[in-house]
């Protein structure tokens, strides 16, 4: 009977055990994470021997150049920064944890080196990545995308054919070279020629990324640093088509306007229209030009010189037209000397006329009456002589012919003098036009040589 009761109790307990939920076994990944972080201190450099040096391997991949600001001397870039170091506290045997060879851990729970970029002005919007990869040998890999605004000494003198050299210097903020040392993850040649990730369809072209390792001494302590130099070149096609070629076209139109006739006002009106149009064109494109307080860019000198040449051309045309019409009464009245004489000589002239009038009045008042009688008798005698000496019809005809001949001769001499003066003005215009072309060619070739020397330097 007792045996039967024991069998029943055993069967009931077995059924109850089958009905109870089975407690899940901890996963190997969870056990590994708990094991690694149980006694881990993220504030301590991960070495068993404190005299050992932790080497940080750094790599840089440039994705794009977002903005180059000459006014603030800064450049905005998008880069991938990769760091790798060995954490001696994060080592395990993969066979003890189901062959797990690599895991991801929170970067907040681990020791992270205090490596900074010296040229950082501010950090832009970058997606946060809170995890790092750790393998069984203790190697920690930290990949971070960074949108950084960097301070850079920009040289805008050769704009838009300029090249820029901006540096990114990685260094430890606090630790000396005996504690944290830096090294390149890849070879310098591989980093310099790596352009696979760079967006090469924008305004800037990536030339190279040379890198170098060096140690600097500060307060009798050596610090290691790695410097990457971003060598980029601007693509000038947009600015050549939008800025330089329209300016050159306006200058060519101004040169062609010299073939307009001098004796009409068309040339001066046309040149004024070109000058006003160029001024409006220059004002509308002010935002496209770089701002630099150290040196004036060559393109700024180019625009100023173009405007100066247009003003010189207009002044030359005004001078020649003024000389061409110098004998006309309206032109004489518009001269500077005539205006000055009219302003400052009117008072003296009126004073002289009043003196002459008063003297003449006194002379007439002092003359005797018999002089008036004699004077009237002489006029009567002269009138009688004129009546008696009236020429005949033939003599009158001869006198009219002589007067006509003299009139034609005077007109011929005036027309000859006018033609000679016109020829002289045309020669002067041609001479000034050659001088204008010489100055234009000289300054254009000088600017092109300067641009070429800066572009291919």
Topology record:
Elements (H helix, E strand, L loop, with lengths): L1 H18 L8 H10 L16 E16 L4 E13 L15 E5 L8 E3 L2 E4 L7 E5 L3 E13 L11 E10 L7 E5 L3 H5 L11 E5 L2 E8 L2 E14 L2 H20 L9 H19 L13 H27 L4 H5 L2 H9 L1 H21 L2 H20 L4 H63 L2
Parallel strand pairs: 1-9
Antiparallel strand pairs: 1-2, 2-7, 3-6, 4-8, 5-7, 6-7, 8-12, 10-12, 11-12
Helix pairs in contact: 4-5, 4-6, 5-6, 6-11
Task: Classify the beta-strand content into a percent band.
Answer: 15-25%
Number of helices: 11
Radius of gyration: 49 Å
Query: Which regions have little confidence, pLDDT < 50, spanning 5+ residues?
Result: 20-25, 344-352, 359-388
Q: What best-fitting shape do the alpha-carbon axes yield? A: rod-shaped
Number of strands: 12
Class from helix and strand fractions: alpha+beta
Major β-sheet, in short? 7 strands, mixed
Average pLDDT metric: 76
Q: What portion of residues is helical? A: 40-55%
Distance between the ends: 109 Å
Query: What pattern of helices and strands is seen along the backbone?
Result: HHEEEEEEEEEHEEEHHHHHHHH
């Amino acid at each position: 009977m007792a045996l039967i009761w024991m069998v029943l109790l055993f069967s009931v307990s077995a059924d109850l055990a089958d009905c109870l939920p089975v407690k899940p076994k901890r996963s190997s990944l969870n056990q590994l994470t708990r094991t690694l972080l149980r006694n881990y201190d993220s504030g301590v450099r991960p070495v068993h021997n404190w005299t050992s040096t932790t080497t940080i391997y750094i790599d840089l991949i440039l994705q794009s150049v977002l903005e180059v600001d000459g006014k603030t001397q800064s450049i905005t870039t998008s880069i991938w920064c990769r760091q790798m170091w060995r954490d001696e506290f994060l080592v395990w045997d993969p066979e003890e944890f189901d062959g797990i060879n690599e895991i991801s851990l929170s970067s907040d729970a681990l020791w992270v080196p205090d490596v900074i970029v010296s040229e950082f002005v501010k950090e832009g919007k970058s997606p946060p990545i809170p995890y790092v990869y750790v393998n069984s040998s203790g190697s920690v890999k930290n990949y971070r995308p960074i949108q950084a605004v960097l301070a850079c000494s920009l040289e805008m003198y050769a704009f838009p054919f300029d090249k820029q050299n901006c540096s990114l210097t990685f260094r430890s903020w606090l630790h000396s070279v005996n504690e944290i040392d830096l090294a390149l993850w890849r070879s310098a040649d591989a980093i310099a020629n790596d352009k696979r990730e760079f967006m090469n369809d924008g305004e800037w072209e990536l030339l190279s990324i040379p890198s170098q390792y060096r140690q600097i001494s500060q307060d009798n302590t050596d610090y290691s640093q790695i410097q990457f130099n971003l060598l980029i070149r601007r693509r000038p096609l947009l600015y050549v088509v939008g800025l330089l070629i329209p300016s050159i076209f306006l200058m060519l139109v101004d040169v062609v306007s010299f073939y307009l006739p001098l004796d009409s006002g068309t040339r001066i009106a046309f040149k004024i229209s070109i000058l006003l149009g160029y001024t409006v064109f220059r004002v509308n494109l002010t935002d496209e030009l770089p701002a630099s307080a150290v040196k004036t860019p060559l393109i700024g000198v180019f625009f100023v010189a173009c405007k100066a040449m247009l003003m010189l051309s207009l002044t030359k045309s005004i001078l020649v037209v003024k000389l061409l019409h110098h004998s006309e009464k309206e032109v004489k009245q518009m001269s500077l000397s005539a205006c000055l004489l009219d302003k400052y000589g009117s008072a003296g002239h009126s004073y002289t006329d009043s003196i002459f009038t008063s003297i003449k009045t006194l002379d007439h008042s002092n003359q005797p009456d018999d002089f008036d009688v004699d004077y009237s008798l002489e006029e009567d005698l002269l009138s009688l002589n004129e009546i008696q000496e009236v020429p005949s019809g033939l003599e009158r005809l001869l006198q009219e012919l002589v007067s006509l001949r003299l009139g034609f001769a005077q007109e011929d001499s005036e027309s000859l003098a006018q033609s000679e003066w016109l020829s002289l003005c045309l020669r002067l215009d041609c001479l000034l036009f050659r001088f204008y072309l010489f100055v234009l060619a000289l300054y254009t070739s000088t600017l092109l040589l300067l641009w070429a020397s800066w572009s291919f330097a």
